[in-house]
Amino acid sequence: MKKLLIASTSTVHGKAYLEYMLPELSEHFKGINEILFIPYARPSGITYDEYTEKAKIGFGKINIRIKGIHEFKNNFEAVNNAKGIFVGGGNTFLLVKQLYEHKLISVIKNVVENGVPYFGTSAGSNITGLTMQNTNDMPIVYPPSFNTFGFINFNINPHYLDPDTNSTHMGETRETRINEYHTLNTTPVLGLREGSWLQVNGSKVVLKGKLHARLFEQNKPAKELPPETDLSYLK
């Protein structure tokens, strides 16, 4: 049975890396002492080793060891032997390109569908949907496909931002861009605000955290969904 935590972000204001999620992560990875970290989306300016070290510090607070996939000689064995998987944030285009180049899309999907707990933040959450088309990132590289894991039956827009009513900026809002997406696409999009996450158990998908999320569906008004909303019905 699938078991995922899909978080908008790794870090919320005023807290250290992953700190706000540690109670959830402790339960999510209960009984697991080491998980596989995939740093392919690495934020600009840091190496895989530096990114992995950051994850080690975060998970060390709940006594879970981290090992980066780049530290293994065989990527397929690393995934197939993983007790848990964490995919961090950064650039989604870069992440997806690397996953395809290393031929890991189907391998990761298979182990997660068969019960290996998955945790994603930002780009790592973006790829849990049907496609990566609702990322906020710049296309700094060209992945062979926008199709991603499809663990949930809709797309994620992480770091969802509401329009600032006090701003003089007259350009596009996040909502405008998602509505543009829906002029050509039917897949629902969930705008996840910072500090919110989805908890997936099998086919059940529930919104968690203290904030509402914003749901966009083609030819329908956007809806505000409160915490504990069950999103399993989305197709």
UniProtKB/TrEMBL annotation:
<keyword id="KW-0224">Dipeptidase</keyword>
<keyword id="KW-0720">Serine protease</keyword>
<dbReference type="Pfam" id="PF03575">
    <property type="entry name" value="Peptidase_S51"/>
</dbReference>
<keyword id="KW-0645">Protease</keyword>
<dbReference type="InterPro" id="IPR029062">
    <property type="entry name" value="Class_I_gatase-like"/>
</dbReference>
<protein>
    <submittedName>
        <fullName>Dipeptidase PepE</fullName>
        <ecNumber>3.4.13.21</ecNumber>
    </submittedName>
</protein>
<dbReference type="InterPro" id="IPR005320">
    <property type="entry name" value="Peptidase_S51"/>
</dbReference>
<dbReference type="GO" id="GO:0016805">
    <property type="term" value="F:dipeptidase activity"/>
</dbReference>
<comment type="similarity">
    <text>Belongs to the peptidase S51 family.</text>
</comment>
<keyword id="KW-0378">Hydrolase</keyword>
